[in-house]
Design brief:
Radius of gyration: 22 Å
CATH superfamily of the largest domain: Pleckstrin-homology domain (PH domain)/Phosphotyrosine-binding domain (PTB)
Shape: elongated
Helix content: 40-55%
CATH architecture of the largest domain: Roll
Structural class: alpha+beta
Number of strands: 9
């Protein structure tokens, strides 16, 4: 049954560019960025049901905000110490360029990051320049874990780790509902194990 679903999934995406298969994980590289809703809709099988969608925290910008504050403080200190105006402007332009770049990268990362659990697989979208959509069948998933850093506990986000067969682990950061997502994945894995045990017991 699961093998048939995986074959249907592969045939569904065989027309997309860059399709490859590594240790049972179908990988699709997309040249164009689609909206999360369009990505999810285009990938769902006819009988597939969404269980949980990871919500990306706005705290993904906290590095950029921290650098912005430090840059302003640094420029003020340089002005107080009497740095010549041309050098002050040069330092300000450099820091403004750096902070703007960080904000743009954080915005794009949040826009393209996608984490979805369905009743058949987990779909992860990562990257900015090289956008990857990774589909993990539950038969290839060993566990789902959640880890929180100190900033994550303060801002209310965690990193979801998906561990697959063969030692592959994918980390998806800045997820607000990480615990709920992990629970949804764990429920599916436990149900699969219970079903397999019942089948073995019946034989």
């Amino acid at each position: 049954m699961h093998q048939r679903i995986q074959q249907q999934s592969l045939s569904r995406y065989s027309s997309l560019k860059g399709l490859s298969l590594r240790n049972g994980w179908p990988l699709t590289r997309l040249d164009e960025a689609d909206s999360p809703r369009a990505i999810i809709k285009s990938m769902l099988l006819p009988d597939e049901r969404i269980l949980q969608v990871g919500r990306v925290s706005a705290a993904i910008y906290w590095h950029s905000v921290a650098v912005l504050i430090l840059s302003v403080v640094f420029i003020v200190l340089l002005a107080l110490y009497g740095l010549p105006m041309p050098l002050l402007l040069l330092a300000g332009l450099f820091l403004a360029f750096k902070v703007t770049g960080m904000f743009i990268i954080a915005f794009l990362a949040r826009h393209y990051l996608l984490l979805v659990a369905t009743d058949k697989r987990v779909i992860i979208r990562l990257g900015i320049i090289n956008l990857e959509v990774i589909q993990m069948n539950y038969s290839k998933i060993e566990s789902s874990e959640v880890a929180s850093t100190i900033p994550g506990r303060f801002f209310g986000y965690s990193t979801v780790y998906m561990s697959g067969v063969g030692g592959h682990t994918l980390a998806v950061p800045y997820i607000v509902n990480a615990q709920e997502f992990r629970q949804s994945v764990s429920d599916v894995l436990l149900n699969r194990e219970s079903y397999a045990a019942d089948q073995d017991g019946g034989t």
